[in-house]
Amino acid sequence: MMMNVVTVFCRKAQSVGAFLLTLLAVGCGDTRDDFIGPRVKDVCDESWPVCGRVAGCILGEEGYSEGRFPGRSQFIVQVPEASHIKVSFYLDEVTAAGEETVVIFHEEGCRARIRSAADGRAVLDSMEKFSVFTREAELTGVGDHLIEFESDMQARYAVKVDVTPLRNR
Predict the structure, then answer these.
(1) In whole angstroms, how far apart are CA 124 and each of 15, 18, 127?
(2) Please, are residues 142 and 165 in contact by the beta-carbon 8 Å criterion?
(3) Closest by CA position to 59, among listed 41, 72, 45, 76
(4) pTM higher than 0.85, yes or no?
(5) Residues 13-24: pLDDT tens digits?
(6) Which of 38, 124, 129, 132 is most buried by a 10 A CB count?
(7) Are 57 and 63 in contact (CB under 8 A)?
(8) Which DSSP symbol is given to 98?
(9) How many Å apart are CA 151 and CA 144, to the nearest integer?
(10) Strand (E) positions, the chain?
């Protein structure tokens, strides 16, 4: 009788364990998918004038873009009022950390800029801890702002931007 109770209990525990493992696997999405969320990919192949240059896309809360490092790229972010801008990168297929990754935030009309740099190891440390690498700045001008970034690391990236009005912080 004791053997039957133990066997039935073990089988139920195994079934519950298998169910919980399956639920956990289904419930946990890919971190890249979590990073992108409901955003739509922008291939950034347009020609948007900004600061006497041309950017390939305008990114906001509803879009993201992809590319490969080493290299550089730029996009426009539209700011309706003084705001906190957060540029986030999800990196994968990393084969070399590189020396430096830089994000440059320009005020409207490129009247001023904020340069934010990190060495290659710091970028990878951020990815290991938080699954994302971010750079942030406060931009006070209203209108179109050029955001440039470049890196000599070897990796594939997805980039997105979040804009939070300063009055909401």
Answers:
(1) 39, 34, 5
(2) no
(3) 76
(4) no
(5) 444 343 333 333
(6) 124
(7) yes
(8) -
(9) 23
(10) 40-41, 48-50, 53-55, 63-79, 83-96, 100-106, 113-119, 133-139, 143-165
Tokens of 99: 């020396």
Backbone angles phi, psi at 158, to 5 degrees: -120, 140
DSSP per-residue codes, 41-58: E----S-EEETTEEES-B
CB burial readout 100-134, b (16+ within 10 A) else e = ebebbbbbbeeeeeeeeebebeebbebbeeeebbe
Per residue in 46-85, pLDDT tens?
A: 999 999 999 999 999 999 999 999 999 999 999 999 999 9
